């Protein structure tokens, strides 16, 4: 989207933020993506490609910059595709490790997921641990306190959601994305040169 000034075109400035969702199968990662981006829930959703992403744009946050949020998810049978893991994790702004609050095994695998990611990605990123399926409170086996303790032990933040009942989905992920966006554009504006660079007609993606 470009605006005209006389005969010149002003370059659109797009800020890219990348979220990566990881965790055991049946923890609701893929349905969280669908709920967040498309506001739908599919009871038996099965991804058919090794990794995929969806995009959500925020066009009214700043007069100069637009936020484009990529949310990446992976297939459940991930072990067969570990050779492409660097592509999946590349330039991740935030990593979200999912577990099912009704399944202790998925909770026990969280730290392994974190270590696997950290071996591949040495760049700066934010880490979140996500307890899903709080609509099944009567079947809970992982307490909130356990979740907070695990997050603290791994320098992460912790929150709980329900993709099925749409609890804490949009406000939580929006808040995280917007905070990262404003930090990035504040850094950009602080470091802007005193003399404006020549106007370009290219489409600028800022990572």
Automatic annotation (TrEMBL):
Domain of life, source organism: Eukaryota
InterPro entries: P-loop_NTPase, Small_GTPase, Small_GTPase_Rab
Recorded GO MF terms: GTP binding; GTPase activity
Gene3D superfamilies xref list: P-loop containing nucleotide triphosphate hydrolases (3.40.50.300)
Transmembrane regions: none
UniProt keyword annotations, A-Z: GTP-binding, Nucleotide-binding
Pfam family for this entry, one: Ras
Family the UniProt entry places it in: Belongs to the small GTPase superfamily. Rab family.
Name of the protein described by the UniProt record: Rab GTPase
């Amino acid at each position: 989207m470009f605006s005209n000034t006389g005969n010149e075109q002003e370059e659109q400035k797009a800020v890219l933020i990348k979220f990566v969702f990881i965790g055991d199968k049946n923890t609701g990662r893929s349905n969280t993506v669908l709920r967040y981006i498309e506001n739908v829930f599919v009871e038996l959703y099965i991804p058919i490609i090794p990794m995929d992403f969806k995009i959500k744009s925020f066009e009214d946050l700043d007069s100069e910059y637009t936020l484009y949020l990529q949310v990446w998810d992976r297939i459940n049978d991930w072990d067969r595709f570990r050779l492409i893991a660097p592509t999946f994790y590349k330039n991740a702004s935030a990593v979200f490790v999912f577990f099912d609050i009704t399944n202790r095994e998925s909770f026990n695998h969280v730290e392994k997921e974190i270590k696997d990611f950290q071996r591949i990605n040495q760049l700066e990123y934010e880490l979140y641990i996500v307890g899903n399926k709080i609509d099944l409170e009567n079947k809970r086996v992982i307490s909130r306190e356990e979740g907070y303790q695990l997050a603290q032990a791994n320098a992460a933040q912790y929150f709980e959601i329900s993709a099925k009942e749409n609890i804490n989905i949009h406000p939580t992920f929006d808040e995280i994305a917007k905070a990262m966006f404003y930090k990035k554009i504040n850094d950009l504006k602080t470091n802007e040169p005193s003399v404006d660079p020549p106007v370009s007609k290219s489409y600028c993606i800022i990572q």
